[in-house]
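task queued by scheduler; priority normal; single chain, no ligands, no partner chains; default sampling; output format set to structure tokens
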Amino acid sequence: MAREPDHLVHENEHYYLRSPSRTQHGRVRRWLLQSQPQSVDGPYQREQAHHTHPWWKVMCLTGVDYFSTLGYQPGIAAVAAGVLSPFATIILVFLTLFGALPIYNRIAERSPHGEGSISMLERLLTWWKGKLFVLCLLGFVATDFIITITLSAADASAHVLENPFTPAALDGQRIGITLVLVLLLCAVFLKGFKEAIGIAVVLVVVYLVLNLIVIGVALEHMLQRPELIVDWKDNLFAERGNIAVMIGVSLLLFPKLALGLSGFETGVAVMPLVRGDANDTEEQPVRRIRNTRTLLRSAALLMSGYLIASSVVTTVLIPHEQFEEGGEANGRALAFLAHAYLGDGFGTLYDISTICILWFAGASAMAGLLNIVPRYLPRYGMAPEWARAARPLVLMFTLIAVAVTLWFRADVDAQGGAYATGVLVLMSSAAVAVTLAMRREGRRRAAAAFALITIVFVYTTAVNIVERPDGIRIASFFIVAIIVGSLISRVFRSTELRVSEVVLDSTAERMLVEAAASGTLRIIANHPDDRDAREYLLKLREQREDHHIPHGSPVVFLEVDIGDASEFAPILDVRGTEIDDYRVFAARAASVPNAIAAFALYARDRAGVIPHVYFGWAEGNPMRYLARFILFGEGDIAPLTHEILRKAEPDRERRPAIHVG
């Protein structure tokens, strides 16, 4: 029986080249890479299969981040706006419903596979500048999501230590408790997405019910003491004068409350988890898009109601000094009311629920990272192949989260600037992406409306950066780390095969079979210049003399044009042309050596003979050639082609032969 080719796959009368299979050794390695694709069939970056769930369950996964802000948002609003807190919160809700929600509805429609706003902006830029731009945005994604994990865990540990029933032995153990919570989150995701969503549903339902009880009881107390409402109203007008001034000041205070907008980017990042219906296709998952929009709208409406109600009751019922640093309501306004009006027993139950949802708020961030990172870095060749698998990424993100926790000593306030910066930069970039998309589609009114929203978010981002510059410094660290690590990975992976698929037209297929009919396939690598008969005649004479190719032995020419050299593994399209008596394979690829190696392997498996590929010597500085290979896909082609073939085909007897003269 003939041996099955190592690289060639035949499917539906079409041949294509697949990446060499990876051998996995050891039980631990198999477990870690369980979710990693074992071969790339067709397009290099095909969406990984996920277990899908009803939209409301996925809403709970993203909602553990979004809804958990109830644990601290009323206190932040009270400190920032004082008696104006309800008005400032209404402005926040208005921008949520009429700013952020429409933006992310559009993004869900245009990136239904979880790419988010990054993919929309990626299409605007080409070549290396597009890749570097995406890496910068991924730096802000990492800032947002990693800090979400660490800040939420740190806030949960603060609630643990502030509960009156907490054992004295835990005093001063904030860092240790935070690290335990981060490691527990890691354990959940090592188990799988399904378990994470199940936990999220329980936590969100319980937390929202408990908050509804606390707010309801607080409203009842507030209505029983109308003098408190009168005092709040008198203080409000005494400080701000009239409604117009209140609205204006609330707009100026919006940047301080912007953390209440978190959750939208995660909502679109986890779209692959949202169940559609049987009529959905990968190209047009209509039902998934509709369900995701329902998810975003439902979360925004729920959160808006809770934010306004919680802001009113906490502002009216809690003395302002309790919100200040050291006060009992600092960072835990609703918990303060739960203990005050429902007793320490119910208050402790509320604290436990808050601790759990704050701890698990990192789950939505982890889910977002696990969906976004494999879509970009491996496709760019800027991460190892194991970055396509979930479990190694979970371990890597957990190690980073542990390092961040130790660096900031689990201090919530110290991480607040970085968190806000990540959230606001992503929302601003999303607004820019949607505005540009509307302009390209000729929808001027929509573009103008989204441009106005963009201005608001850009202003908010700028104010936040000026007031809390530590956030942009932390984000810059993530950006530099991602860019440096990605470029190093790209260099180390540059000698992989780097072709997802080899496609020959009918003429090229015929020429290949006929050229190999003599039992020997000789391929001359030629730099495309004039592409006339004289060029091929001179090249053939030179190669016959240098390599002693027998006269009369058939040869073919292979020419590779460089397309976008920043692409890592595009499809290799090969066209067959005949110029006088010379047969030429014309290909277009991101890298010349990788394309030649891929074509040689394809030709071997398709025609059943070992190809011989002929090159001329290149003269020049080796380091200069190396840089040209990495950046522009050229370089010293012959030795690079040999190295790529050596890695792709370990068996020397089956490896295409390289001749340099």
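post-processing summary
- Residues 1-16, 18-24, 36-48 have pLDDT under 50 and may be disordered.
- Residues 333-376 form the longest helix (44 residues).
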